[in-house]
Amino acid sequence: MKSAVLAAVVLAGVVAGAPARAQHAHAAHEHGVAELRVVAEGEALVVEFASPLDNLVGFEHAPRTPAERKAMADAEAALRNGVGLFQPSAAANCSLKDVALDSPWLQGKRHDHGHDHAHAHAEPASDGHAELVAGYRFECARPAALESLRIGLFDAFPRLRELRAERATARGQGAAVLKAGQAELPL
Length: 187
Hints:
There is one protein chain. By secondary structure, this protein is an alpha+beta fold. The chain is 28% helix and 34% strand. The protein has 6 helices and 9 strands, in the order ααββαααββββαβββ. The two termini are 23 Å apart.
C-alpha cells in the first residue's frame, strides 16, 4: 500500500510540476529530443515523458485548423495508450493503472490527477515553445523481475529522434540516451 501511495504522489507531481519543468526545459529546447524519467519503488513503476509539441504533432502553437486539431487529438490518443508505448519486463507482471497528460492545448478529455486541489497547468511559453508532459503509473506483481522497459515512442512519433532518460530503480540510478531505433531501456 505504501508504494501505491508513493506512486500516486509521484504521478500527481509529474503533471503538477510540468509548468516549472517546461520553463526550465525551454532554455535548452531542442527539436527531436524529449525527456523520459522512470522510477521504480516497491510495486510501483512511474514513467514521465516530456516533449516539445513539435516532436509529437509538428507545431507548437494552439491548433488553428481542423488538421492541426486532429493531429493533437491523434497524439493524445497515442499517448493515452500507455501499454502501447511502454512495456515493462513481462516477468514483472505489470499493469497500467493511471495515465495523466498535461499540455496547453489538450483536445480530448482533460486529465484527472485523482486529488481535489487545484494547481497550475502547463501554459505555452512566451517564446512560442510548448510541450506536453505525460505520466504513467504501473503496478508490478513481481517488481524484482523488472529489468527493462520497452519503449514505443519512436514508432508512435517519427519526429522524435532522441530520448534523454533518467532512471531510479532498486538496481540504482542512472542516465541513458536512446536514439531512434532503440526500443529498450535497461532498468
